[in-house]
Write a structure and sequence with these properties.
Shape: globular
Number of domains: 3
Radius of gyration: 23 Å
CATH topology of the largest domain: Agglutinin, subunit A
Helix content: under 10%
Mean pLDDT: 82
Strand order of the largest sheet: 1-10-11-12
Number of helices: 2
Oligomer: single chain
Largest sheet: 4 strands, antiparallel
Low-confidence stretches: 4-14, 20-26, 285-290, 364-368
Length: 368
Amino acid sequence: MASKALKVLILHFLCLLLFLRPSSSSYQTDTLVQGQGLMLGEELLSTGIFFRLGFGCFSKCYLLIWRNDKRARLENIVWVANRNTPISFDAFPSLTIDDYGNLTISYDGGRSTFVLYSGQEARLNASAVLLDSGNFVLRELNSDGSVKRVLWQSFDYPTNTLLPGMKLGVNRITRQTWSLRSWRGVDVAAEGSFTFGLDPNHTNQLVILWRQDIYWTSGSWYNGSFNSSSSLLTDSYCDFSYISNETETSFTCVRKDSTPLYPQLAIDYLGVLSDGRTLVNCTTSDFSNPSEGCVPQELPECRSRSHYHTFTPYSGLWDDIDGFRFDEGDNLTLMDCKSKCLNNCSCVAYASTNSGCPNWLSDLVEIT
């Protein structure tokens, strides 16, 4: 048992090194072809060397696309394929395209698969290419190698990051939605509690949702811009274009002139929207003071302005402190735990385990 644990620990360390080291992969191509597997430690590199695609391991292993620059890769991840189906360190994942054009991640010696694209009943000629836009595209090819049609693309399945050319909105025909979904934690890529996308109430504005509640609004789109003076999206590196017809309603990010070559707009696990600079941050208002488009949470009287106190971050283990209580729940984030604490007048501290909420209660606080 100890030997097995040691092997897993060593493999965990090696996977982390593979992810954090400068790339020395033997793959110097942007294309994955049929009969070829992309293994752990191998990468696709876009033609202009702007983006890389490969497996990265931090808390678990994921198929990732990240910006090819000198900053830490964790900060530059723009897309995660299997965010809700992480792969263990010793499962040795491989990305492949089969004879029918199905794009899959196989692991555990081929006993388990994660399907990115499936739907062909006949054999076809296919390949997948990582573009300089950051889009990973699976294509059916003609016999001469030209592109016949696009079968699947990562831009249709965004995670927490918007790149130029990506959309936020809905396809009216297929009902597919395009939106950003935050991570659950700093290094937990699973879906978190914040969504950035088109207002579900059918207004022509962008919103951040916390679970199902509106957390922030951009203001309505009017005459080529958001008309709310509080909207900070006008300061972002994205110039948004808006379309609404019988096929789709969507906003598309278009790169502004005189901005970084490939800007990105991302929402983090705390609901902060940024493009390398903070654009929207409602956490600083602690739900008590709506500003810059933030929508306050309804709270009990004990948390009103006259009774309000802010939380101060601390780190460490507090399990032995009197008043500790653990609230279990599925996929609870730090913001979920904060809300639970704010709604309990006797709660004086909270934390998150990304599954439940340790809360600390005080008998000295009056409950109303």
